[in-house]
């Protein structure tokens, strides 16, 4: 290739990466403060299985905050958690989620809503799934403590809530998930 070919390849790769970011990922971040932005990282099959294992046997409304491509919501519905709802700001990921729901035969049975998780009332949620960045966890912990009922369980993937003690954990490394029962979290906070 030579140095000129390598330079052209590098520039083309950079332009392609920027175009992908600008069209697919950036739309969901436009109104979110920089410190609260979370890039889309799809959950692996083991992460999904671990998260849903910590919700096995539970009932009530299940929400995924920052639902991405919808895989956790679809699996929650498949395992009997109803209603199953995903909140996502990125319109491209919402389209992908709805397509995946249609493809799985769950169109109209699960919901993917373009709503800011900071503006959604979670007081009727009993199962909350959160696969978000560490910078989001402290302000989100305050919101969850204020809104969730005592019977609620929060399952966090990738990063735990720094000030909460988990009720149970499952997995290792990137596949680890943490479950927090709100009644215990509130008791520990007092």
UniProtKB/TrEMBL annotation:
This protein's UniProt keywords: Membrane, Methyltransferase, S-adenosyl-L-methionine, Transferase, Transmembrane, Transmembrane helix
Keyword Phosphoprotein: no
GO cellular component entries: mitochondrion
Domain of life assignment: Eukaryota
GO molecular function: protein-lysine N-methyltransferase activity
Cross-referenced InterPro entries: FAM173A/B, SAM-dependent_MTases_sf
PANTHER family in alphabetical order: ADENINE NUCLEOTIDE TRANSLOCASE LYSINE N-METHYLTRANSFERASE (PTHR13610:SF5), METHYLTRANSFERASE DOMAIN-CONTAINING PROTEIN (PTHR13610)
Protein name listed in UniProt: F173A methyltransferase
């Amino acid at each position: 290739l030579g140095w000129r070919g390598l330079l052209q390849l590098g520039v083309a790769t950079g332009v392609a990466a920027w175009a992908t970011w600008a069209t697919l990922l950036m739309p969901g971040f436009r109104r979110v403060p920089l410190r609260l932005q979370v890039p889309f990282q799809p959950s692996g099959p083991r992460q999904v299985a671990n998260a849903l294992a910590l919700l096995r046997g539970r009932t009530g409304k299940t929400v995924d905050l920052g639902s991405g491509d919808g895989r956790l919501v679809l699996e929650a519905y498949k395992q009997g958690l109803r209603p199953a709802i995903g909140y996502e700001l990125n319109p491209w990921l919402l389209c992908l989620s709805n397509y995946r729901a249609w493809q799985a035969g769950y169109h109209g049975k699960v919901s993917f809503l373009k709503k800011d998780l900071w503006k959604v009332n979670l007081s009727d949620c009993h199962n909350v799934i959160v696969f978000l960045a560490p910078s989001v966890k402290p302000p989100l912990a305050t919101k969850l403590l204020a809104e969730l009922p005592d019977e609620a369980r929060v399952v966090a993937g990738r990063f735990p809530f720094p000030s909460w003690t988990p009720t149970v954990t499952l997995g290792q490394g990137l596949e680890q998930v943490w479950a927090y029962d709100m009644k215990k979290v509130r008791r520990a906070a007092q």
